[in-house]
Task: inverse folding
């Protein structure tokens, strides 16, 4: 495959490397995510999962290799340019507009995709399509009753839901969720996974997740990242059975979670 | 007391009434205050309101702390003066000069803002400071534009009179400025309701996230900076017509600092805060400076207290109390307010007595040995006056602190009850 050749994948990583100073965090990761697929990225702490997300969303630039979104290289692009290509991401720590209301948070995320850009000659109140879309998203994330509350006054679970809402509001085809259920209780997590399933219907989903219950419940395929390399990328069953994965990561995690009685 | 924790909009319904009242105030103010001084002050207030509102577009709405806003209003004042001096040749109506100045201010914002808004936060503040100094230094290097040390002066009574309006009498000037004040205020308010206006708030709150929802933070800042520069320019043009002179100090750091200080005092978190700030700016610089030589010191003290105890400015104090009133709990706080005000006045009087005595010793000794202070005569050379005012000051401070703690407790209780009430209403 020659560099820059178009691919039929929603997201493709070609031998991506990323170093911070002398430390190489991502050491030649390759991944091909088909459109409409749900992929979970798992791996031990420090494997580079969040770094990988930052590379795909343009927060960092790869030291070498290539990241393609919808077949186009994102090399040197700003995050907002990648977003306009139809890729949106959420953050591990809620990253909201804290002094704006829930409604305003989501509407800000809708505006660009509706073509309003930097308009200062139109009133927000008159943008019926943007306001309708915002209400629709608020219903999807079940915050429609909290629309006028400031983001800083939401509960933790509500903030996580708003985080997802901002991510999907622009209608991006590729959604990256960075530990969406981090810090949630078991029952909240179950409900939240259902919500994620709903709002990412028909979209390409990449998610970083620690909870194996969520991973096996949500993902079509699982990518295992260990020390900056993708050591396996397969269906949940095959990944579970993969001896390399067992050895490097999954064995210990599954044993732990089984021992804790959290999951079978 | 953090002002940003709540949002309270008592006039969603009566917005029309509020704007009508604003227009009415602008209209009748010169009929109520008829003296020459008050007419001059009212004219200056219009200018200050526009410039403070334009500054708050950066500070309050965009989170951009500029130390060089006077660059845009000031350069526009010079442009306006040059245009005014050529009215005889070009035939441009004097009444349109603020608009031309606005375009000039915008032009400078397009050029200088491109560099400035590349960065946010502290680097942004530093660059504005640098550009402010740069432009101020230029004022001596380019006398063709800045008029050297004497500045550029002119005469506003040059155009053909239209319906008998010559802009000779201050009253005519006032009404011209009032129209500009009203239109600019309305336009800047409208801006806060547009996509760009809202994204500017988003950039203030969380620039990083903005980049991930399709917007370039740099572009948002740049566009807002240009629009802010336009309104600053209009204010500069208004000033040119009002004062008929432009000197280097109109682009200076002191002027920029004044905009920052009074916008903050008025309240940067609410749209109408800078309007209060603008009015205060004129009152302070015209009236307070008449009363005492130490007025800048008092101003500094007020600013200090405001930053520490009410960072949302006067506007947030008003809004917080309106909220308490809306829940019918303001009556409980009346006594505390009286006590707070009373003790604060005692402290202020004692502190002022000492400040005035210091100033007298340092500067005015030639004018006699005593200070006339609020109807009494103090002798700064003797111990009695110092001892007395120190005693009053300390007692006042003690009482004030006591009352303040009581009040803080009560205030907390009232806020708690209001929160509960809101929760209760939500569940209904």
Result:
């Amino acid at each position: 495959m020659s560099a820059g050749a178009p691919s039929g994948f929603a997201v493709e990583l070609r031998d991506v490397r990323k170093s911070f100073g002398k430390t190489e965090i991502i050491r030649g990761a390759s991944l091909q995510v088909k459109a409409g697929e749900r992929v979970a990225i798992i791996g031990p702490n420090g494997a580079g999962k969040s770094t990988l997300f930052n590379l795909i969303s343009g927060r960092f630039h790869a030291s070498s290799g290539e990241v393609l979104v919808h077949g186009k290289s994102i090399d040197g692009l700003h995050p907002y340019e990648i977003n306009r290509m139809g890729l949106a991401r959420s953050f591990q720590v809620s990253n909201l507009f804290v002094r704006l209301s829930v409604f305003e948070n989501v509407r800000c995320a809708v505006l660009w995709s509706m073509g309003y850009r930097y308009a200062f000659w139109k009133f927000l109140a008159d943008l019926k399509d943007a306001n309708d879309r915002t209400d629709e998203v608020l219903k999807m994330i079940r915050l429609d009753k909290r629309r006028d509350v400031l983001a800083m006054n939401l509960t933790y679970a509500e903030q996580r839901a708003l985080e997802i809402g901002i991510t999907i509001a622009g209608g991006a085809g590729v959604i990256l969720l960075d530990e969406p259920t981090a810090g949630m209780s078991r029952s909240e997590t179950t409900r939240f996974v259902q919500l994620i399933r709903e709002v990412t219907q028909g979209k390409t989903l990449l998610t970083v997740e620690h909870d194996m219950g969520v991973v096996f419940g949500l993902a079509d395929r699982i990518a295992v990242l260990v020390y900056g390399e993708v050591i396996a990328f397969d269906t949940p069953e095959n990944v579970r059975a993969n001896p390399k994965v067992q050895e490097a990561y999954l064995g210990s995690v599954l044993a732990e979670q089984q021992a804790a009685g959290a999951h079978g | 007391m953090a002002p940003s924790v709540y949002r309270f909009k008592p006039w969603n319904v009566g917005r029309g009434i509020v704007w009508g009242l604003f227009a009415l105030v602008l209209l009748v103010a010169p009929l109520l205050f008829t003296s020459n001084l008050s007419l001059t002050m009212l004219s200056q207030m219009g200018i200050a309101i526009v410039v403070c509102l334009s500054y708050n577009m950066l500070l309050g709405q965009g989170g951009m702390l500029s130390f060089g806003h006077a660059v845009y209003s000031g350069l526009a004042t010079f442009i306006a003066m040059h245009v005014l001096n050529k009215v005889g040749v070009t035939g441009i109506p004097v009444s349109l000069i603020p608009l031309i100045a606005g375009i000039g201010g915008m032009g400078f914002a397009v050029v200088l803002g491109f560099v400035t808004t590349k960065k946010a936060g502290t680097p942004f503040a530093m660059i504005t400071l640098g550009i402010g100094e740069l432009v101020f230094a230029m004022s001596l290097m380019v006398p063709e534009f800045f008029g050297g040390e004497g500045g550029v002066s002119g005469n506003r009574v040059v155009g053909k009179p239209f319906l008998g309006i010559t802009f000779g009498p201050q009253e005519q000037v006032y009404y011209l400025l009032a129209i500009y004040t009203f239109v600019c205020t309305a336009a800047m308010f409208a801006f806060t309701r547009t996509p760009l206006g809202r994204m500017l708030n988003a950039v203030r709150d969380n620039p990083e996230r903005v980049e991930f929802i399709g917007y370039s933070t740099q572009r948002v800042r740049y566009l807002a900076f240009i629009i802010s520069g336009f309104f600053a320019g209009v204010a500069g043009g208004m000033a040119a017509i009002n004062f008929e002179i432009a000197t280097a100090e109109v682009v200076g750091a002191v002027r920029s600092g004044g905009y920052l200080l009074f916008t903050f005092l008025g309240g940067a978190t609410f749209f109408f805060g800078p309007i209060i700030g603008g009015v205060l700016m004129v009152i302070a610089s015209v009236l307070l400076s008449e009363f005492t030589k130490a007025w800048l010191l008092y101003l500094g003290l007020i600013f200090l207290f405001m930053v520490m105890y009410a960072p949302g400015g006067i506007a947030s104090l008003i809004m917080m109390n309106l909220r308490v009133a809306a829940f019918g709990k303001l009556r409980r706080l009346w006594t505390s307010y009286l006590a707070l005000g009373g003790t604060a006045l005692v402290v202020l009087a004692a502190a002022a007595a000492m400040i005035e005595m210091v100033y007298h010793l340092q500067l005015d000794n030639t004018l006699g040995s005593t200070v006339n202070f609020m109807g009494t005569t103090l002798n700064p050379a003797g111990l009695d006056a110092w001892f007395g005012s120190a005693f009053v000051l300390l007692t006042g401070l003690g009482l004030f602190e006591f009352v303040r703690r009581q009040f803080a407790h009560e205030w907390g209780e009232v806020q708690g009850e209001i929160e509960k009430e809101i929760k209760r209403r939500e569940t209904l």
